[in-house]
Specification:
Length: 347
């Protein structure tokens, strides 16, 4: 299963039609969020949703963008193309608040009603449980719920499991970037994560994204291994290249239940608001955004995962290059090319 026998012209032909479910049994490709009007003609059919598109204003940095959004029902068509989907709106609010389901929970229930048994979701855990500081107006303040295991369990984990059941593939804990002047020592962070991961329900679907390179170190990685939590490799603003992140972990995937995750979020060195502004309205690739190495390193890590019989999940954001479905095509093309090269070198 880990060899290149699955790689053939049919994989490329499917990718040309934006069909990514059959790249390889151990490869799952998906996107960060969905329902983008800009994906019409790629993932979504114009005639199905033309009367159901809504619009909203999204304030990013100092600019406002008018986004057009497809209905939840479009997730049925999404999963004809991709194996997995990352839901990111759960980052901003829990699923239960004051004992009552939130709007996030209600939307997630609508998704669950439209998914097939084989469709899978990654959910971002609310920042209120994993961020050391939260934005308050124009500043950041200490987060009183930081690593609050009981609240996380009641307000997010239990309702997520109840809503999604086996459709829940993973939970992503995203830690905000820590400026050098504000960083706690890695040993202290490791101790905090040890207590948190040891006090929430045992589960082999937890994945941690550390957005500070200084925390890519043995004490923190040892804690992730101890609790069976995965370490996410992320192509993101203030992180080094994917291959460097991988090397900092000893050139080994730190997996959760045999699953590894790569998230392609933004070009390195480009802030969120700048990447968003360049990529909007997400209907085409922006070549100057696509950095040398991102696609090649992603494909190389896919092969590294297959060699180790690790299931690899690639989550692609529009902000990484303008249009996630077309970035997926580029990645599959590079993956196939590397597979053919490997075959030619085999005795």
């Amino acid at each position: 299963m880990s060899g290149s026998a699955f790689i053939n012209d049919e994989v490329l032909q499917c990718a040309e039609r934006y069909l990514f479910r059959s790249v390889h049994p151990l490869v799952s490709i998906g996107t960060a969020s969905d329902r983008y009007r800009g994906w019409t003609g790629q993932i979504y059919s114009e005639e199905l949703y033309s009367e159901q598109i809504t619009s909203r204003t999204n304030r990013v940095g100092n600019k406002s963008f008018r986004e057009e959004v497809l209905p939840v029902d479009s997730v049925r068509e999404y999963f004809q193309h991709f194996k997995v989907l990352e839901i990111d709106y759960t980052f901003y609010a829990p699923l239960i608040e004051n004992g009552v389901p939130t709007s996030c929970a209600n939307t997630l229930k609508q998704y669950s009603m439209r998914m097939r048994p084989e469709d899978r979701l990654f959910l971002k855990a609310p920042q209120m449980f994993f961020a050391q500081k939260l934005r308050r107006k124009n500043d950041y303040a200490p987060n009183e719920n930081y690593l609050a295991s009981d609240a996380f369990t009641r307000q997010f984990y239990e309702p997520a499991v109840n809503l999604l059941g086996p459709n829940l593939k993973g939970i992503i804990f995203e830690q905000e970037y820590q400026r050098q002047s504000e960083r706690i020592p890695p040993v202290e962070l490791a101790a905090q994560l040890d207590r948190f991961l040891g006090s929430i329900p045992p589960d082999n679907r937890y994945h941690v994204e550390l957005r500070t390179e200084a925390y890519y170190c043995k004490p923190v990685i040892d804690v992730l291994r101890k609790h069976g939590a995965g370490q996410i490799l992320s192509h993101w603003t203030w992180l080094p290249a994917l291959k460097r992140q991988f090397s900092r972990a000893g050139n080994r995937f730190i997996t959760a239940g045999g699953q590894a995750v790569i998230r392609l979020m933004t070009p390195i060195g480009v802030r969120y608001e700048d990447a968003y502004g360049k990529a909007f309205p997400f209907d085409r690739l922006i070549e100057e955004m696509i950095q040398p190495g991102m696609i090649a390193q992603t494909a190389q890590l896919m092969w590294e995962a297959l060699k180790s019989e690790v299931e690899i999940n690639i989550i692609i954001n529009n902000r990484a290059g303008g249009n996630a479905p077309r970035l997926a095509q580029r990645i599959v093309s590079e993956f196939v090319a590397m597979g053919r090269k490997r075959e030619s070198l085999e005795p």
